[in-house]
């Protein structure tokens, strides 16, 4: 009995023995995740872009604000005035429209030069270079062929550049939407058709095409001369003489 008592006292007085022979605790099993019927963003075809408000569709196209896919083509804009509306509209650009009509009838080289200058203002091309090139082609066409056939071919590229810059509807697309007789075409075929329509518009209605482009570009782009920074001129004060009163 005494021996058993002494062994019990030794076991109680040595806490290391209980820690060495103590069985390690088994980790608790994680509770099974609750199954929900909600689909993850990946399953829905949309993945958030790191909390910055951007997203991606299942096809890999980025999402803009809302649910608009950035890769989808946007609708074409309409021209501000029709091809045969030579006098323009009765608005704040009425005087400019009358000027455009006068220039297109009397001096098409000047109207073409101003249109090209506004379109290519970022490249720094001058009005004189466009106007002189058009005038040379105008004279060569009338001298060798008897009519202005070269300048319209040259001026049609301005119409194509204007359609691309302002996302305007072309003649081929307008014809398809009005009559609906032609099926849908690919992007390359559509662009070739629009380029031919631009050339045909200038060949058969050159003055009207120049006037329509002039009215459009004046409503959308300011004149390059208006973008110049104002110059501050300092005028020194006049000489002041000191005189004594008598």
From TrEMBL:
Location of region: Disordered: 1-43
Composition-biased stretches (Polar residues): 1-22
TM region positions: 136-156
InterPro entries listed in its UniProt record: PLAC_motif_containing
Keywords linked to the UniProt accession: Membrane, Transmembrane, Transmembrane helix
Keyword ATP-binding: no
Protein name, entry field: Putative PLAC8 motif-containing protein
Organism per entry: Rosa chinensis
């Amino acid at each position: 009995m005494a021996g058993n008592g002494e062994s019990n006292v030794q076991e109680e007085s040595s806490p290391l023995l209980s820690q060495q022979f103590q069985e390690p605790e088994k980790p608790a099993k994680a509770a099974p995740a609750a199954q929900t019927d909600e689909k993850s963003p990946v399953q829905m075809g949309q993945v958030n872009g790191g909390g910055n408000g951007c997203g991606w569709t299942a096809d890999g196209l980025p999402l803009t604000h809302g649910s608009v896919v950035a890769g989808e083509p946007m609708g074409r804009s309409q021209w501000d005035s029709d091809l045969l509306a030579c006098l323009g509209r009765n608005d704040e650009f009425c005087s400019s429209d009358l000027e455009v009509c006068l220039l297109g009838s009397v001096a098409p080289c000047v109207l073409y030069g101003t249109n090209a200058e506004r379109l290519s203002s970022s490249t720094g091309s001058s009005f004189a270079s466009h106007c002189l090139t058009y005038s040379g082609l105008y004279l060569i066409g009338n001298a060798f062929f008897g009519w202005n056939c070269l300048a319209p071919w040259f001026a049609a590229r301005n119409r194509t550049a204007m359609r691309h810059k302002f996302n305007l509807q072309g003649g081929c697309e307008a014809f398809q939407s009005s009559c609906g007789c032609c099926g849908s075409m690919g992007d390359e075929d559509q662009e070739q058709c629009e380029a031919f329509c631009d050339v045909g518009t200038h060949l058969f209605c050159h003055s009207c095409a120049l006037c329509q482009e002039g009215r459009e570009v004046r409503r959308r782009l300011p004149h390059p001369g208006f973008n110049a920074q104002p110059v501050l001129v300092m005028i020194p004060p006049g000489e002041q003489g000191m005189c004594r009163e008598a």
